[in-house]
Specification:
With about 100 residues, the chain is mostly helical. Helices cover about 45% and strands about 10% of the residues. Strand 1 and strand 2 form a beta hairpin. It is globular, with a radius of gyration of 13 Å.
């Protein structure tokens, strides 16, 4: 399915996650973040970059691994991405929903 984001036709799944990371841009991410009620800051971008790097390196993503190895603590993740930090951050990062998210 397709969705208009940042003036582009972007392929997404039925939950709104990008199905093709090559279509991701910062502008696309900004619009997704806005839909999720998040105003992006430098801290948000650090988390997004970390998630994308982990995905590209085929590392599994979970709240625990993100809190241990990521750029911010679990507490900060919840502050940056309230109500489902890993789900929201993954959606903004343009990667599929992690298996650890329901």
């Amino acid at each position: 399915m397709e969705k208009q984001l940042a003036g582009l036709d972007i392929s997404v799944d039925n939950e709104g996650y990008l199905t093709d990371l090559s279509q991701w841009t910062r502008e696309v991410a900004e619009e997704i973040a806005e839909e999720e009620g998040i105003e992006m800051t430098d801290q948000h971008w650090k988390v997004i970059e970390y998630i994308q790097d982990s995905f590209r390196n085929q590392e599994s993503l979970s709240m625990r691994s993100l809190g241990k190895r990521g750029p911010v603590s679990i507490k900060d993740l919840y502050a940056l991405f309230p109500d489902g930090p890993l789900k929201k951050a993954s959606k903004i990062a343009g990667i599929p929903k992690p298996a650890s998210c329901v």
